[in-house]
Structure formats: C-alpha cells, structure tokens
Specification:
The structure is a homodimer. In chain A, about 50% of the residues lie in helices and about 10% in strands. By secondary structure, the first copy, chain A, is α/β, with parallel strands linked by helices. Chain A has a six-stranded parallel β-sheet, with helices on both faces. Chain A is globular, with a radius of gyration of 20 Å. Chains A and B meet through helix 2, helix 3, helix 4 and helix 12 of A and helix 2, helix 3, helix 4 and helix 12 of B.
Chain lengths: ~350, ~350
Amino acid sequence: MRLPSIPEFDKETAQKAADRQDKLTKPRGSLGVLEELSIRLAGIKGEEYPSLINKAVIVMAGDHGIALEGVSAYPAEVTPQMVLNFLKGGAAINVLSRQANARVVIVDIGVAYDFGEVPGLLNRKIAAGTRNMAIMPAMTREQAEQALQAGIDVINGEREKGLDIVATGEMGIGNTTPSSAITSIICGMPVKQVTGRGTGIDDSGLAHKISIIEKALSLHQPDPQDPIDVLSKVGGFEIAGLAGVIIGAAANRIPVVLDGFISSAAALIAAGLAPGIEYNLIASHQSVEIGHQVILQKLGLTPLFDLGLRLGEGSGAALAFPILDSAVRVLKEMATFADAGVTDKG
Amino acid sequence: MRLPSIPEFDKETAQKAADRQDKLTKPRGSLGVLEELSIRLAGIKGEEYPSLINKAVIVMAGDHGIALEGVSAYPAEVTPQMVLNFLKGGAAINVLSRQANARVVIVDIGVAYDFGEVPGLLNRKIAAGTRNMAIMPAMTREQAEQALQAGIDVINGEREKGLDIVATGEMGIGNTTPSSAITSIICGMPVKQVTGRGTGIDDSGLAHKISIIEKALSLHQPDPQDPIDVLSKVGGFEIAGLAGVIIGAAANRIPVVLDGFISSAAALIAAGLAPGIEYNLIASHQSVEIGHQVILQKLGLTPLFDLGLRLGEGSGAALAFPILDSAVRVLKEMATFADAGVTDKG
C-alpha cells in the first residue's frame, strides 16, 4: 500500500514560539512542560500561535479471536455493549470528552456484532473480529492494509469537518493481548516484561495470557522489520485502524495525543511504517500496563502525567487536552515583559 | 487568636461515592486517581455528587525584607508590577484560570508599594513588606495573626459569592526564602535540603541564599511547635494569609487545591494550627523546588502531576481544576452496568 508522506517538523516556527515564550512575564522556563508543549505544537502545526479549537477523540472498536482463550476478565460481548454505551454518551470517554470540549468519533472497524444502521456509528468493519492468533494469523495481510487505510480515511473525513488535534482511543475485549505481542516483537522484549493484567485478571490469568502470547509469537514468527506482517499475524483491527489514524494525522500536520498501551502499540506500528513520525505524537499518560513504558521509551516520548489509569477508550488522552489548551493559550494570551511594564531579570 | 473549627471528613458520603464508582461502566479502579479524587471530594464536601462549579484562585501578594540580601533573581519592584499584570489579565495565572473557568482574586496583603484605589485589588495590607529576617523578625506576632485573619476573611467573602473549591496562589519576590526557612524548621530538615533556585539564581546565589536562611534561623530560633512563632520570625504575609485561606476553606468544607512550594509552606503552617486539616488538601503538582516534596511527604499528600513548574501564582493548581472537574463528572454522568446493559465482570 502507498502511505501518505509525512511533512517535517517546522523548526523555524517552533523557534518563533520559543522566542516568544522567553519574553512572557514569568521566569524563563518556569512553566516547564507547558512551554515545551507550546513550542512543539507550533512546530508540528507550522503555526506560531497553534490553534486547538477543533478536537476529536477517535475510538476504534474491534473484537479479538484470542478472547476465546480466556485472556480477559470480561467476555467479548462487552465490546458491542460498550460501543452502544459510547453512542448513548454514558461511557468514561463521553464524559471526559465533554469536559475537554472534544467530539467523540466511534468507528466499528471489526466488532463481532451486527449493529445494523446505528446513528453516530461509523461502519468501517473489516471483519467480525480477528481470528484466534493462538491458532492462525489474526488477519490477512490484505485486511491489515484495509484497516490501516480505514484509519487514514477516517482522519481525512474528520479533517474536512475541522480538526486541529486528535486523540486516539479504542475498545476491544482482549486487546491488551495483541498489544503485548506487538510490543514484544517490535521492542525486542520478553513477553512477560510487556504483559499486564488488562482489565483485571489474576495471577494465574496473567501467567496464562503470557503463555498464549508466547505461543502465538512462536507459531507465527512475525518479522519486526515488517509492521504489516506483525499487524496481520498478532495485531487487531482497532490497532491497525489507529495506526492509520496516526499516519493520516501526521500527514496533515494534525498532532496526535496518544492514550495508553493499545494506542501506543498502534503508534509503534505507525512509526515502523513512517519513520520520523514520532515528533507528531504527544504521550498523555503513563498507563498501569507495564508494556506501555517500554513503548514510550522506544518512541522517545515522555508522558504528561500518571494518574494510575488503565481504562483505554482514549480516556487519558482526553484528560490531556486541557493541558494542551493551557499551553497554547499561555503562548498566545500572556503579556510580555515590555507590554506589562515588568522588569526583566538582568 | 481563635481559629474556626474544622469539620470531619464525611466517611458515609465518601462510601456512597465509592459504591457508585464500582457500578459504573468501566473495570473497577481503572480510572485510578480520578476515582479516588471523586470519592475524596464527596467526603470533603459531604455531597454524594460534589459540585465544583464555582472556582477561585486566591493570589496573595507580599514583599519580603529579605529580598535586600539578594536572594532572588528578580528585584522586589517586580512584586507590584506583577500585581498590576494580574489585574490586567496578562499573567500566567489569568490565562490558566480562564482555561479552568475559575475567577482570580488578587489580594495585597503586604506589598511594599502604594497601589491607591485599583479596581479589582483587594486591599488587606498588613504592612509594606516584611522586615529583613536576616536581622530581625519578619513581622510581629500580632501581624502574623492579622494576616491569618485576613486570609480567613477573604475566603468568607468569596464563599458569600459562591465558592465550591479554591486554589492557592501567591506573588512575592523572595518568597521561596521564607518558605525554605519554614520547611526546614517544621519538617526538621537541614536548610540546604529544602532550598532551591526560586526564579533562577545560580550556584553562588544558591549558596548565599542557604547561608542567609541558616543565619536567620540561628538568630531567631523559631519554635516548630508554635506555627505563629515560625510565621512571625521567618514567614511572609502572603504565606500567613494563605494559611488563613486554607483554614477558612476547611472550616466551610471547601476543598483546597495547593499550588507549589510557597502554597505548601502555608499548608504546613495551617496543619500546625489545625491538625487533621490535611484531608481537605489536594496537591496539584510536584514543583521543581526541592523543598516541596519534603512538605508533601510531611502532609501525606501525593501530587497529581509533575510538569516541571516553578512559577507559583497558583499556576499548577489552576491546571489541576479540569482534572478535578473530570473526576466529579465521571461520578455523576457515567452510566452504570445496569443502566447501559453492559455485562459486568463475574
């Protein structure tokens, strides 16, 4: 497949933002990460005063054949149930997005349920769930490419409605399992060092989950140099779709706020397909899932906060939006030393 | 002086909030600190669905005689200049409060400048700055009590306008110096372990600052068991005023969001005067100032985030407001498993 090209970080505009930060009425650097974010966003967007008015959280939902192996604390029927909850506005991501003034875009990219025509649900279903990767590849190579393209198409559609920044979210019972598999392969780490309890399995459940992932990796031998091979053998449709969202956003200078472990596994795939894309990614939070920090380190990203979250849906990313709003408003709205008649440091 | 009494944490209402969190459509505990915050706020306010609509950041401004000793990177004239910047809306705290939908209350509690009548400035001036604590006590015991009372009065005035939650902020060139002195005495730590670079002094400036604080403490021998003795000998008017704000807020079940080092030094004084008040305090961020973590540990508080901030003004506390809003909205607005028809974990 042909991927869109990724523009370069706009160093000149970022430097203008940095110069302005140094003239604002505060000790230089005293707003720490807020200053850095405003400068990064200026460079990503190529705007001296980056605008973040139009925000969206794109939530991709998909099911996983591997759920049959008992890797999750919840049954697979929860995936479509939660999709319906999203559409009614009752899930955490709905509440957090209202607070953040972001719209929520729900995409069925591979749920094992026939929703029919449901208002508000984007139907981009590739298949009714992946296959059980403990036995066979999760999807075909063609399906992996279709899911990537679906993500790119979704971001292009949202861009036409107005989109200044996007957050990644997902729903899919069992999806920490493919995320751990992807992380293990691409980061070259043992499975047990990148596998956590997901929605809340116990010790024996965790040991079982690790052995299942090890079995799948041993069976399929995905090629870490070929992200689509990894996706198709041990990935998930929502992970592939989010990788497409991440690439499509970067192609359009739309910064991407990553949520937790699954979103970051998608970013690993995206970075494999489009090296250099990392500058366009903002890590919102440090998830409880132990594989998350391995990915963030690989991508060179530092999360903004750690609130002990392990929900997914885009919840941590939505929580980051007000911090990003604050960063760009400081850059635009604060007075300079000269304007305010405040004596600068000698 | 007589201090208002502090109500107890409402365990019963907190338990109701905890019970509801366990019924919402997410794995139990998966929203981590957000869940804990919503439960704490329910218990603080005695409201099953705590409301945080009316928010204020109270910024107390004062000058410090110790600034004459060259302990700050900025000259003392910056204190009144920044007060005027606050009143014009050009400072960081103005921008961050607009983003957080909080009003900013600016109080002159001891600036060494005659503002005359300025719209929007609350005049509660105790004196035109403290005295130089390297030579004499910073203030009289009576002045310390007046400043505490001024803080209590300010919070009562704001409460009458409607106030659901309050953040503490301050401005005062040189005020990390009294904050380090207070922290050293009350936490029983060597001065050099609780003294940082403030707005940005260099290595020799830092060594000088430490020696000045050591000199003042040696000269006055403040009694760590007597917070008003500590305040009067090595404190500051804005620190005393904020201690009053913190006590007055707790007396009225108004949760207090602490900013950084100076606000937390005020909380140390408040906790000394009103033991048990800690439950009413929410630590917003971990400041760059090294003494801050010592105070938070002493008060048993965990900050919500660390964004490398060292500005003061209430900036970190204002950034925490949207997180708190998110916490109470999750509690109130999310659907339960039963309502949404989502299968719960077995």
